[in-house]
Amino acid sequence: MSPRELPLLLVRHAVAEDSHVLGDEARALTSEGRAAFRHHARRLARLTPLTGIVTSPLVRAVQTAELLAEAFGLSSVEVHPALLPRKGAHKRILKLARQLGPGWALVGHNPSLERAGALALEGEELPDKLRKGMALALRPLSGGGYTLTWWASPGRPIRRPGDSRR
After folding, report:
1. Could you give the angle at which helices 112-120 and 89-100 cross, rounded to 10 degrees?
2. What pLDDT does 73 receive?
3. How open is the CA angle 68-72-73, to the nearest 5 degrees?
4. Is the full-model pTM beyond 0.70?
């Protein structure tokens, strides 16, 4: 697979605890969320190779990114503030995605990842809600936009545009 054929993955963090005594930033993955995402990440690794992984600095996203790196055989993840769930994050996420290019996974949060996906598809509606642990595979187009290649959530079948089931 040539680098240009590699997708960009937008990955929402896996299922995390509802609260943490140290605040939202410290919320970790639940043991069930960790187990489900580990299995899911292995399935994703069979679909496409990755060049690298960039993640939000929040604990739940870093833990998700580390499980992804393990499944893809990557030795590290990079933490980037563009993936923090703040106002205007969707624009920063898409800018970072364009800088990194195809073959990267960006791990973050909703609603910013969902909005970044819609912005990448140039306003085209996403086919599904971006569930926890879900990965969207976007292929870059020559004009600067993206097209949706497939999407997958833990415990659900991999879906592609044109699939008849919703």
Report:
1. 60
2. 97
3. 115
4. yes
